[in-house]
Input
Amino acid sequence: EVQLVESGGGVVPPGGSLRLSCAASGFTVSRTTMSWVRQAPGKGLEWVSGISIGGGSTTYADSVKGRFTISRDNAKNTLYLQMNSLKPEDTAVYYCARGYGDTYYPPWGQGTQVTVSS
Output
């Protein structure tokens, strides 16, 4: 059974940092194109970052480029998103997902809430 469990969210002031984790089971993260996507209040899903099979390529939305870093630990079968220099507009529920861009595969995890506020 495929499962994704996100964690690491919280409330931070502008300029703060958080590291999100996505523990995967039922499939191998290193053999899957993975993404982080987010959903801000009242808005649709927004792709944030992706990592290719094997990890040779990482990509970022322009809104987070230079501030966020996607990575994974193959031994732990876990995906990460290091978020630095957080802005209020980064406030959202963050999800990890199998897939990229406009195509994702269920199931989804429960997400983790990130709130950037002073």
The chain has a mean pLDDT of 95. The two ends are 40 Å apart (CA to CA). The longest strand covers residues 92-100. The chain has no helices and eleven strands.
